[in-house]
Each structure stands twice: as C-alpha cells, then as structure tokens.
Design brief:
Blueprint lengths: L4 E4 L5 H12 L3 E6 L3 H13 L4 E5 L5 H9 L8 E6 L15 H26 L8 E6 L3 H4 L6 H21 L4 E8 L11 H5 L11 H12 L10 E4 L4
Parallel strand pairs: 1-2, 1-4, 2-3, 4-5, 5-6, 6-7
Helix pairs in contact: 1-2, 1-8, 3-4, 4-6
Length: 245
C-alpha cells in the first residue's frame, strides 16, 4: 500500500537521491526533479521502481515559477495522491568573503534556495490542504547548519539563504497546521556529497564532536522520518544531522 506521492526536488544525486531511494523503500511513490543531470535522475528513478513503487524523474528549475506550476499541475494519475514534498534543490557558489561576492552570485543563490522553496511549498500546500479538498501531508525543507553557524569566510550568502528557509519552515508550519499539513526542516552539517570543494571535508570533519562527516543516507533517514506518520505530532521543528557541530 502506498503512502502517497512525494515530490523530491534536486533528486538526481546526494541527499535528494538518497531520500528518493529511502522513500521508495518506505512505501512512497516518488517524483524526483533534476536541473541538468537527466541520466543520473533516470537511474535513481529506476532504483525506486526496483523497490516496487511508482517513480519518475522530471526536469525542473525551481526558480522558474511557470515550471513549478506546470510540474505540480501535471502530477501523474497513476501515482498516489500528493502527500509529501521534500524541498531539497539548492546551489552553492565557490568559497568567498562577502566583500568578494557580486549581485549575480547572490541573486542565483536566493532564487534557487529561497524562491524555489517558497514556490514548491506554495503549490504543494494548494494541493494537500484539507481546506482546499486535499488529504493533508508533510513538507520537509532541507536547510543547513550553515543557517545557524553563518559560514564566515566561505558561504555567508548560502548560510543566509538557508536561514530564510528556516523562517519559511517555522512560519508555514504555523500557517497550515490546521489544514492537515506538517512542515519541518532537516539541517545537515558536513555531509559527504559533491557540494563541497575538494579537501573541505577532510579539513573540517575532524572539528565535529563526532570526528567525521555524515552521509547522504543519514540525512535521508531523518527526512523520511519527518515525512512519515511516526512524526505526526511534529511540525515547525528542526532536526540537525550534523555530528554535534
């Protein structure tokens, strides 16, 4: 029996791909999106189908409103009803100080990481809200410990974008709690994915209390718990998966 359909943005690799595989194994139908890597996204969708669930990969730039509206307006009838959204799509730019950043870099980060999360959340709420005839559901935003730590000297713009995602999480959770929708966030720390510049994990992982970096699968477990009915009384909450840092 299906838990329903979950849309996972940025699902072709890293945390998004791990979440898609874990969600399928847990009984979710999966629609994962990708920006450029069609082959990897198709591979992840195939792995989800091997788990016995419906799964499909579709291209999406979350920063383009028309694309987001089109995606949520054309969800497949053969999958279960929409019951989940994982706002995972995100970008980061090369390490720089604020004094070195230009407007183009900052704008792209905010467009993808903040505007994209808002647009996808908006469309998911419209479909899932019990006030509008939906069956309720859960939204999990993939934030970052950078939102709390600030990432001075490296990624202050990225940290600021994730702090905005935290504010979205808290505000939206309170806004739609009475409409059958829970909204939470996972804040990964140093996770072994392609987002890091070469050598960064080796340099920083020993500084965490646990002395190591985390894995995408460890984050995916947290995301899928927040999606599940096991977290039925949890909303407006932040789950740090950061090794204590």
């Amino acid at each position: 029996m299906s838990n329903g359909l979950v849309v996972i943005t940025g699902g072709s690799r890293g945390i998004g791909a791990a979440t898609a595989r874990r969600a399928a194994a847990g009984g979710w139908d999966v629609l994962l999106t990708y920006r450029t890597n069609a082959a990897e996204a198709a591979r992840v969708a195939a792995e989800c189908r091997e788990a016995g669930r419906w799964a499909e990969a579709r291209p999406l730039d979350v920063a383009v409103e028309a694309e987001v509206v089109r995606l949520f307006g054309s969800l497949p009838a053969e999958a279960g009803a929409l019951r989940g959204l994982v706002n995972n799509a995100g970008v980061v730019a090369p390490a720089a100080t604020v004094a070195e950043m230009d407007a183009r870099r900052i704008r792209r980060l905010l467009d993808v990481n903040v505007l994209g999360a808002f647009l996808c959340a908006r469309e998911a709420v419209r479909l899932m809200s019990t006030a509008g005839g939906g069956g309720g559901g859960a939204i999990v935003n993939v934030s970052s410990r950078a939102a709390v730590l600030g990432s001075a000297g490296e990624y202050v713009d990225y940290a600021a974008s994730k702090a905005a995602v935290d504010a979205l999480t808290l505000g939206l959770a309170r806004e739609v709690a009475g409409e059958g929708i829970r909204v939470n966030a996972v804040r990964p720390g140093l996770i072994d994915t392609e987002i890091h510049e070469p050598g960064r994990l080796d340099r920083l992982a020993p500084t965490t209390p646990m002395g190591r970096s985390g894995t995408a699968d460890e984050v995916a477990e947290a995301v899928c718990w927040l999606l599940s009915e096991a977290a039925s009384y949890t909303t407006g909450s932040f789950l740090d998966v950061s090794g204590g840092r």
